[in-house]
Structures are given as C-alpha cells and as structure tokens.
Amino acid sequence: MPRVKAIFIFRYFFVLFFVIYCKEKSLDNACDINSDSYKNSVIIYNLLGVQSSNCSAGIVDFNSSIIFVNRKEGKVSEGGGDLTLGSSQTFTVQLRRKPISKVEIQLALSDLTYVTVSQFNLTFDSQSWSIPQTFNITAKNDNLLNGNRKISLQLIAKSDDTDLDLTPIVIPIEVLDNEKRLFVSTIAYMGGSFGGISGADTICSSDIKCPAGSTCKAMILGSTRVATQSANLGDGQVDWVLHPNAHYYLTNNITLIANTNSSSLLQIPLHFYKFPFSVLWMPLLLGHGLVVT
Predict the structure, then answer these.
(1) Are 113 and 51 in contact (CB under 8 A)?
(2) What pTM was computed for the model?
(3) What is the mean pLDDT of residues 222-243?
(4) Four-point Cα dihedral 140, 142, 148, 149, nearest 10
(5) How far is Cα 250 from Cα 258, in angstroms, rounded to an integer?
(6) Is residue 195 pLDDT above 60, yes or no?
(7) Is residue 37 classed as helix, strand or coil in its secondary structure?
C-alpha cells in the first residue's frame, strides 16, 4: 500500500511539473500570436512570400496587412463569355480590424490589355470595415493566338490611421487563351479507313502537325459526334470539337481561318487560303481529315 501511494504521489508531482513547464513554454510557438516565434514566423514567411501556415488549430495567416482578400490568386479565361469578354472571377475584400480613419483601397493591374475590372476603388470606415465588398476580374476575348498570360493585381491601401499596416496585397492572375488551331491531316484517309471517330482522334493526336502538348481531334460527323441537328443552330450537339466564341488559326499561328459563334459553329465568311496542293479550304479535302486542336 505505501508503494502504491508513493507511485501516486510521484505521478502527481510529475504531471504538475509537466503542466507548469508547458505553461511557461506555451507562448513559445509559431501558432500563438503572442509569442516571439509567431513574430519571427511572420518575418520569415513574408520574406518567402508565404501568407499562411498550417497549425493544429487551423490556418494561421501571417500576412499582417490591414487588407483581407478571399483569394490568393486568380484565373480567368478568354472563353466562357462571348466574342468580346470571357469568364469572370469574383474577389471579396474587407479589413482585418476596425480603423480609426477611413481606408481607401486602390486596385492596380500590371496590364489592362487582357482583363477588365469592375471597379478600381474600395472604401472602408469604422462602420463598414468588416462588411465584405466585391469586385470582378474579367478576361478580354481577343482574336490573337498568344497563349496564356500572367499579370498581377495590387491592392494598395491609404489611410490617416498610422496604427494600420498598409502593406499592399499582390495577387497573381492567369489569363487562359482560347484561340485554337485547324490543320489538314498529313495523310489522306479514304472511306472511313481511320477506324471511326475514336480512331480518327488517335490519328489526329499523333499527326506531325499536332502541336506539342495539344489534344487534336478530327472534325468529322457521325452518330457520336454531332455539330447540330438544325441548320445554323448548334442544337443537339454531341462531342463536338469546336469551342464557342473562339478564333481558329493554321498551325503557323498567323493565318486566321474563322471564328465560331456561341453555338461553336464556324462563321461565314471564312478566311479562304490555299493549301500546298492548290485547293481551297473546305470541311473535308481530298480525303484528308480536318483536325482541331
């Protein structure tokens, strides 16, 4: 019995010592905003360009700027809209804490050639600081085969409140190109010798003219690949290869063939040109398959 009592007392003091030891060190971790480790982490993470870290209690944000944005990066596409504008992405902004003076936030884009923004200025005060405000970034749908572009968006804060951290927020934005290519297959395939639509797609993807990294498909029709059920409507499409509101080029990336409408149908007039074998571009040419990337 005394042995059991001694063990119990030892365990009691061990637990008490452990609790006291942990209490003394409890503020020395990167997830506690009152610790030196947290402050050091803020400096290191900002130098590395990292804005958050995983902690046992969740995500700890190391960005000390008064500006809070719901997205760390953006991505929009020239497709998804019409022939003028593409897809949009919404950003939500608010302040991290209540300011004494009004805070004005200016939106600055590194290049306005590729996108539009719904508004360039946001204003917060001591009443509205926690109420989210939104703006939209929308891609411009140009007719240039110029690939994906990367730009940056800066949110720049101004205020007379000297206690606020007015460090600008920088958000990278990627604009996806929607221009495509058309080419005539290198080899002629007569009488369906390509093995159906799936076989034709395989041939197209392995064709020497198919640009590296692209998925090339055959612009042919059948029961499993339908462009339209009614003339010029684009209704009842099945596995159709053309994209809506896109411009199609030759694989030289210079010669424009035509654009599609919102129903993914090529529009007339086409930009006619001559192939090396001296015939005009048509949907099917001397048994050669028309290929889409």
Answers:
(1) no
(2) 0.69
(3) 84
(4) -60
(5) 10
(6) yes
(7) helix
